[in-house]
Every structure is written in structure tokens, then in C-alpha cells.
Amino acid sequence: MSDPSYLAALEFLATLLPELAASEAAQPVRPPVPLDRAQALVPPLGAKARPLPEVLASLRALALNTPLTTTPQFFNQLFGGRDPAATAADMITAHLNVSMYTYKAAGPLVLVENALIEHMLAIAGFTAGEATFTNGGSLSNLLAVALARNEAQARRGDPDPDPDQAGQWTGKWALYTSAEAHYSMPKAATILGLGRGAVRVIEIDEQGRMIPAALAARLRADLQAGVRPVLINATLGTTVMGAFDPLEPIAEIANQHGIWLHADGALGGSLLLSRERRAQLFAGLERCDSLTWDAHKLMGVPLTCSALLLREPGLLDRHLGEDAHYLFQTDEDQLNPGLRSIQCGRRNDPLKLWAAWQHHGDDGYDARFAQLFALRDHVVARIDAHPDLRMSHAPQSLNVCFEMDGVSSEQLCLQLNQRGLAVVGYGRVNGRDTIRLVIANPAQTSAVLDQFLEDLVATGSELRRASS
Amino acid sequence: MSDPSYLAALEFLATLLPELAASEAAQPVRPPVPLDRAQALVPPLGAKARPLPEVLASLRALALNTPLTTTPQFFNQLFGGRDPAATAADMITAHLNVSMYTYKAAGPLVLVENALIEHMLAIAGFTAGEATFTNGGSLSNLLAVALARNEAQARRGDPDPDPDQAGQWTGKWALYTSAEAHYSMPKAATILGLGRGAVRVIEIDEQGRMIPAALAARLRADLQAGVRPVLINATLGTTVMGAFDPLEPIAEIANQHGIWLHADGALGGSLLLSRERRAQLFAGLERCDSLTWDAHKLMGVPLTCSALLLREPGLLDRHLGEDAHYLFQTDEDQLNPGLRSIQCGRRNDPLKLWAAWQHHGDDGYDARFAQLFALRDHVVARIDAHPDLRMSHAPQSLNVCFEMDGVSSEQLCLQLNQRGLAVVGYGRVNGRDTIRLVIANPAQTSAVLDQFLEDLVATGSELRRASS
């Protein structure tokens, strides 16, 4: 294809992307765009065609007014930074535009995906297992619940799980997850037909971890009442507090009753690559049936890149593999990942992770997490030493939750953003709104974090004076 | 961010992307890469870091060996071509890396999505409705079934649908879809806990359309047996034959029993923009409850870009909206699309479609489809006129299924690909393997199609001679 308009678009990008990078460097925090100004950036769609240069100019204006997620002053979500290899791979993905269902359609890119899956399974200790990429942690979790539910239902009486009959059952079912777990659990319950009422919310300790005794008690009561457990979800890195549920005692309970144990490591899964933390945070992982692992969070690749790993092979094919003669025609099944995926047409998410991982190696990610944990310790020490700042809990991973005395966390976060100083969110910990500082960007430094705390205290003091 | 390694990656892309485009122009069909050569392109992942230039070189080698989906000789899937505005927007998306849940995180890009949704709803005639973007037609269909199931269950007795209790029900449920429907229907049934056995496969006529009388008969039998219908799925553009199920008589049946009617327009939905065809293909759409519409197929934007449109508002929030204090904090709900989406973290799929649509306008898409239909008529006339070629059925949309006398369609497709002449798939029609020629690329011409038929006949004649 020598389409001149595509070459014009590439030329435009060659100018725009460095301009965007320079703009980010010059002003790392963009205060929120007022709605009327945002509206003006979005010309309506209609019958008439617009020349390509005009459309590209609209894209440029939008890009220059989009919140920045990649600069070191962005602490607001569970991702941050920009990986050069991964971003290049994602742009190549847009150019290639293959669909990841068959070797016929995607060629060697299927082998990239398979290599990645093999490496991730080995790291998780699920060496005999299988995996599939989904479009985010919510969908990985949903798929885990669906597989667990189908398997649990099939085991009721049938000698062999029969997906053809899955769900044609009666009775009450429940799933178990902590009070700090991600909202994708109730969402999955609603979508999968279990209902939000099926979600048992288990109490947490002061660090945000599920209390195994509370889980055991709730399970006992349910079993006595004839409720059937679908799955226990242990969160590895909760959204607000960054807590890791204790896998060993939870696995003990799950195994005792033969219940599927899922580990939601959407956030924390990547920390498997931290050699120092791994043993402590993941003890018991080998007893889990499934693991959600989002590489688009702590591994720094563009959204989305999430995998669902399964300890035992065969379930994906049994519950997702459909005959499709027009699609799955030649090549062995191992080369047709569409047989094991929740999607049919599927964008190539693995390539960008593979590229980043090639660039950094396990060693590089290990070093990254060591650095991020060191920065966390640095910030926590600063907060502990400051008379006006108060930690909400001792953090287990990279979320640091704290408050400033006498200042609304919400107001403080909004002000920091309005003033172009930082993007940081707030979350509720033990019933109080706290500032949630996420340290996820490998470009992070202690100088940036010191400046952040300085700006925060100065802004907070002003707010305090204004309100008194 | 003035990260020099990112600038190096951009420089690499500035050279690579035109090189890839030139390579496509020079050799529009890449014969399949043998497995051993593909393996050599995928260095294993391991502990050690690799320098960025080496990794980028790996990406280049992979890209130069990936099957081409964008050239006019690619007729193999339901998409084709490369839109310059959309591809540029997708690359900008990789650079910006925002998540589409809130105005806080995505700023004006939320308004882009809302503008697109409004325009699509207006075109579908669902002006009072709502919509959400998913990661492909399979997930849009899955979501439609989930919403229909929750609503059907809730209506059983409850005055107000209660998603908290969804699914805690008893009894047999079923969904209805044609024998030519996409495999995402049984896949959704397995995932959603209805089971593959819940899928009623309704007979089709010789053009691949669901036979309403057969649907009515099956429904009657099920209702008499106490089975509860979840949803009727009418396909607008089946995968192999491109058939449009007749919406009017199906809606009549659905309305009579108060059953959710879903239109799977993953392929065909885009043809709503064909002013000439619209009335004929979509009569009755206003009586459907939901519509799947994949823009990554006939509208030419990179994968994935799929929307689920709903005629009535409120269901997405009721069944997908979860409290998440740390996320949905400020701004009105209309600006927080995460409340209505199946995902939490979500890549920006709408921007690329918005850019393409700005560039072409409704007028441009109307002209595109007029051109594609004219090319289809041209090809069909050629096939009809050729003594060795035989149409399988009169096509309703842009899939042309035909056979060559005395030649295996499978062998013929493989040979065309091996010889670098064309990429085309085969599919089963009325029990016979036929060549499925998909005319989806706006860069298509009658000269390319004539050459394709010439190559096909020559190759087929050779195969016939060799086997006789």
C-alpha cells in the first residue's frame, strides 16, 4: 500500500508525537479542561466529509488537552510511565491490524503470544497450565468466575463436566471476596447471572487483608444453609490499600471444601518478578486455580494487557472452544489461540508486553520493583516524620494512603490538580477519605516525591487557613 | 517526558512504518511463514535485558513477516484496508494511554466517545437509548445476552428488576439464533451459565436467513415445555454467507411473547450508513432491543471497535454500574462512561472511529458501501458468466460464496495464498465448502477482482489437472 494519505498521516505523527512528548516535559500536569472548552475540541459528526489535515488537526488539539498519565507527577491510577519498546510495539500493532485468532491470520505473532504465556506460567509456577489474554482485569476476573461456576456446577453429580449443560441448575450459589476487593467481582456476578447478592463480602484486617477466619465462618454458614460456593477470590494488591490477601490460610479453606481459588493479581501479579518480595507476598500461589495478571499496570505497557493464567490445562478449550469451520481450519490447535479466548476478533495485546519484557528482562523488572519499593519506603518515612501527615495503614505494596490533619483529602487532591502540581486520587480507608499515592512509574525519583509532599503540605496548609 | 529512548523509538517508527507500507505495496500477499522460520523470529524471554535497538530490530523482523490484512488482495476476514485517520488516532491512543472510565482520567476524549454514541444511536433510530464500547462483537453479544437474561429473570414476578438477585433462579432457559449465526452465541451461553444446550439453532433458508416460522414453532414447543426464553438473536450479516435475518417477522414473534430481540450487526451494522440498502436490510430494527455494531469491520478502523447499542436507557447502569468511591468521584455520570461499561480499565477505541468518521462523513461511508456493492455485483456477474464457477447463493451483503467445479475450495484457497496471489478463506454453505470472498476494503477495484478471478481459475485448473 503506497496510499499517500497514510504517508501524510505518518508524517503528521512524526511531528506530533515528539511535540506531545515535549509538551509533557514542559508541563507535566494538565489541570482539568473545563467542559465548555472540551466541547469546543469535539466537532460534531455529520454527513459531510472533512479533509484529512483538518481531522488530524482535531486529533492534535484533543491530544494536547488530554490528561497526562505518563509523567512522574501522575500518581492517580495503578499505571504510569511510558515504555518506549511497548509503545512502539503498540503503534506497530495499529499498523499491522491482524486479529489474534489463528496462525493463518496472525503468523509469527501467535508464537510471540505463546512465548509470553509460557514465560508467565513458569513465573507463576503454573508450568503445566494455560493462559489467555483478555481486555483487562475485569474480564480476566469474569472469565475466572465463569470457569469456576461451570466446573462447580458440572461436578455436582456428573462424572465429567459438561459445558453443554452448564447453568441449567437450581439453587443458591455464592462467591467470596474481601471488602477491599475490586468491583469487578460484583460486576461479574451480575453479568454471569449469579447476582450481586451472591457476593459474600468478607471482613478485612487493618492492613486491608481478608481475614481467613471470617471467610471460614461465612462459608460454614452458607454450606449449612445449602448455598453452593462458586469461587473464593483472593486479591493480590487491592485497588485502594494495595493489600495482599494471605493465600496460604485461604487455600487451606478452599482445598478443604474443594472450592476454586482465584487470585486477582490485576495489580499485584507483576510483583512476582520482585525476587525480594515474591516469597512473602505470593506464598500459597501454587495452590490457586487461576491468576489475573495485568501487565498494563506495574509493567508499564499501554492499556490493555491482561492475562488469565490457569493452573490446569484444558478448561479454556472446554468452555470457550467453539467449532468454527470458516475460521479454525488448518494448523494445530496450539497455533490457534482463538479456540481459548473469550473474544473472536482480538487486537494484539501481547506484542507490546513481549517487546517491553525483551528490553528489560526479568532482571530489569526486578530492579524496577526494588526501586519502587525503596521510593515507597522513602515516602512513608517522610510522612511518618511530618507532624501534619498521618499514614492510614502500613502498606504492603506500592499504594501509600495517608491524610493531612484538618484537610479534606478530596479538596486537597482537587487543588493539587487544579494548580498543575500533581494528579493524585483519594480513596476510603477504614471509613476515612485518604490520599492514595500510587508509585508505579519507573521514571519516578525521590526528588519528585519530596517535591510532591512539599506541594501537598503547602497547599493543604492554605486550605486549612482558608477554612478556619 | 523527554525520555531519549522514547524519541529513539519514534525515530525508528518514522523509518519503519513507511518501509512496511512500501513492502506491502511491493508484495501484497505474504505466503504463510513456515513454523521453523517463525520460531527464529521470536527470541525467548529471560532474565537478561536486551538493548532497545535489538528489540526494535526484532519487532521489525516480525512486522515484515506478519500476514498482510490491508492490501486489496486480502479477502479473508470481515475487515480490510487501512484508514489513515483511524490508524493515526490509534497510534496517538498508544501514546496518550488514558483509561476510558472517567472525565478525570480521559478528559475531552470522553466527549468524543459520547458524540460517537449519540451519532450511532441516531443512525440506528435508538435516539432515546444508550450504548457502550466493548472489545469486539463477541463481547457485545455476550453483554446483550446478559442484560436480556437479567431482565427476563427479574420480570418473573418482581415488580422491579433487581440485579442484586439476578440469576438466583430455577428452571430451563433458552436463547434462539439461526444455524448461520456467529459462534459467540453458544460461547456466551457457556460463559453466562446458560450452557450450550440452551442455544436453539433455528433453520435457515437458501440465502442463509433465519426462517421465522421455524423460530415460532420452536418457541411454541419450548414454552409448552416450561422453558423460558432469554433472547432471540437476529444476525445482520452472517459470518460466512453475509445473510440478514428478516427483522420484521422475527420482531413480530418476539413482541408477541415479550422476548428481548437482539440484532447482531457485528458485520452488517455498518451498512446502516448505506442509504440505498438501509430500508431493505434493516426494516424492523426499531423494534429490536439491542444492536451489536463492529466498526472495525466494514468501517475500516483498526481492531477492536465494537459498540452495543440499546434502545432503552438505564440498563447498563443498572446491571454494570458498581459503586467505586476511589474511581467515580466527581463530574456528572454522563462523563463517567466506566459506570456503563463491562470493563474497568479500558483502552480508547472510540477515538479512531471518530477520526475516520470525521474524515469520511456519513456521505463518505454511504459512497464506500455503494462502491463495494457495485464491486460485488461485478464479481457475481463474472462468476455467473464463467462456465467453471458456481455461486453458492444470491448474496445479501458483501460476502460472495462460490465454488469452482471439480476443485476443493480448501486446496484452492491454500494454493492462492502459497503462491502469493491472494488471501481468501473458505466456509461451508449448505454442506459444501465454498470460497468466501469478502469485499470489505475501500481500496478495492474491479481490476483487482478480475485479476483475482483469473488467478483463481488458472490455479484451480492446474489443481484439477494435477488431481486427474
Automatic annotation (TrEMBL), chains A, B:
Molecular function in Gene Ontology: carboxy-lyase activity; pyridoxal phosphate binding
InterPro entries: PyrdxlP-dep_de-COase, PyrdxlP-dep_Trfase, PyrdxlP-dep_Trfase_major, Pyridoxal-P_BS
Pfam entry (one): Pyridoxal_deC
PANTHER family per the UniProt record, alphabetical: CYSTEINE SULFINIC ACID DECARBOXYLASE, GLUTAMATE DECARBOXYLASE-RELATED
Signal sequence interval, chain numbering: none
Keyword set, alphabetical order: Decarboxylase, Lyase, Pyridoxal phosphate
Obligatory cofactor(s): pyridoxal 5'-phosphate
Similarity comment: family membership: Belongs to the group II decarboxylase family.
Superkingdom field: Bacteria
PROSITE patterns listed in its UniProt record: DDC_GAD_HDC_YDC
GO biological process, one term: carboxylic acid metabolic process
GO cellular component: cytoplasm
Modified residues (N6-(pyridoxal phosphate)lysine): 297
Organism placement in taxonomy: Bacteria, Pseudomonadati, Myxococcota, Polyangia, Nannocystales
The protein, known as: Aromatic-L-amino-acid decarboxylase
Keyword Lyase in record: yes
